Structures are given as C-alpha cells and as structure tokens.
Amino acid sequence: MSEYPTIESCIGNTPLVRLQRVPGNTGNTVLAKLEGDNPAGSVKDRPALSMIAEAERRGDIRPGDTLIEATSGNTGIALAMAAAVRGYRLILIMPSHMSAERKQAMSAYGAELVEVSQEQGMEGARDLALQMQADGKGRVLDQFGNPDNPLAHYRGTGPEIWRQTGGGITHFVSSMGTTGTIMGCSAYLKEQNPGVQIIGLQPLEGSSIPGIRRWPQAYLPAIFDAARVDRVMDISQQESETMMRRLAREEGIFCGVSSGGAVAAALQLSEEVSEAVIVAIVCDRGDRYLSTGVFATP
C-alpha cells in the first residue's frame, strides 16, 4: 500500500497562480503562492512538520513527549496536525483575542490551549512557553529561534517558486511574523540569482494584522537576519483587509488578512518596476477569519 500518499506527503507543492484582475493594466506578472492548499490550511504546515521531524531525527524528542509552542494561530494549527500524525501531546499558548476558528481547529486536532491576555500578546505567550519548559512541562519547539523553520522553506517553498517561475522570479514578497518563510526563501532564491529582490512586510504602526508583527528588539526572532531582506515595507490594516476582500471577489482567492497585505504590497511594488515577475505569499485561507467580521465590511 506504500504507493498511496500520507497526509505529510501532501504538504508543499502548492499552486502558483497569476492574478488576472487586481493588478490592472501592467506589463508585470503578479503571482500568488497559495499556501492555504496545505493540509492544515497554511504555509505553517511546512515548518511545523520540519521542526518535529528534524528534532526526532536528532533524538531530541520522541512520540509520546509533550511539545509546547506560543502561536497566534497558523503555526498552532499546523503543529496540532503534525503532532496528531506523529503521536505527540501538544500545549499551545496564544493571545485570547485570536479568532474562534483558530482555537477550535487546534482543539479539533487534540491540542491543549492556554490563553494569555491581549495585552500580554505574543511576547507574553512566548515568555510563558519558556517558563513552562523551565518547569519541566514539555519542550518548546520555538518557531522564532529554530533553524528548522526557515529550513523548510529553503528545502521546499523557495525551490518550488524557482521551478514554477522557470527561474524568472524578480521579486519575492512575504509578510513577516516568525520570518521563517522570508529567511528560507531568501537564502534559496539568492543562491539561484542574487538579483532577486526580497521584500518583507510589517504592520504600519498602530495596525493589527494577525500573524505579523513589528517586534520589539528584545523579541526579534533569532532566525531573522536583516541582511537577507532587501526592503521592508509597512502595510496598514485597512489596506490588508481591503485587498483580502478584493482577492475573494475579483480573483476567487479566499485568504487571510496578512495575505491581503502581501498582495497589496506586491501591487505597490508593481507600480515602481517594469517587466517584473513578482511572487507574493498567500499564507492561509480566509475561512479561519470569518467570525471576526472582516469579510462583512463592504
């Protein structure tokens, strides 16, 4: 029966599609990498499996152990899926204001949820995870400092984009949360062509966009290397949500808020360049944001 795939083997090899209407009249090609097509619904499936599989390979963990992770949502869902497949108990720590769909999806996979206040935020969740590890309650995988996070994108996402564009990519655009996606893809794409421009997105001051942050210096992900990013763009919550709704209504792409931000930034970039092939990461699906009401706004 080995000819049949497992759920793990369905992670990656996601579609790269051309945007047809929102780019308008342009000589550039704007492409969206549809990471919501991964089994647990986001780009985070890749590092979730990578962090568990590589830790197993090193002998750091084994099935039956308890894993702990701070998450704003997508990594938690992905880890819950991967932990279910590989036989781990999982404790997830997240800010209480994250969407109901995210919390319910984590629980559906069997994860135990611990919430911190909105004021404590992801910084508080990360601190609590490390405290629980120090108290002997489990092992923190630490998506923010674990090199197996960007490794998943160096091995998977980057090579896929290079292959899917026939080596023609000129610009890569990604929202920055843990920064694993942009770090791994940058490393691979720059090896193939140092001229590929890597653009990272952070929320405009005062904007709240699920999954991406303006990290205080003390909490900047350890895997982040500023030298791997050619340009950082600020994106507002309003721009992100507006583009998210436009993608659903004009392109048939149902995605989350940070994905809307990535495409909005790609279109801003498209106005500055010519004859470019711009790839934006659409990191998840929109169904995990429905209860927040973001799709109800005109």
UniProtKB/TrEMBL annotation:
Recorded metabolic or biological pathway in which this protein acts: Amino-acid biosynthesis; L-cysteine biosynthesis; L-cysteine from L-serine: step 2/2
InterPro entries: Cys_synth, Cys_Synth/Cystath_Beta-Synth, CysM, P-phosphate_BS, TrpB-like_PALP, TrpB-like_PALP_sf
Keyword annotations from UniProtKB, A to Z: Amino-acid biosynthesis, Cysteine biosynthesis, Pyridoxal phosphate, Transferase
Stretches assigned to the Tryptophan synthase beta chain-like PALP domain: 8-284
Entry keyword DNA-binding: no
GO BP of this protein: cysteine biosynthetic process from serine
Annotated positions of the N6-(pyridoxal phosphate)lysine modification: K44
EC number: 2.5.1.47
Stored SUPFAM superfamilies: Tryptophan synthase beta subunit-like PLP-dependent enzymes
Cofactor needs: pyridoxal 5'-phosphate
Protein name: Cysteine synthase
Taxonomic source organism: Kineobactrum salinum
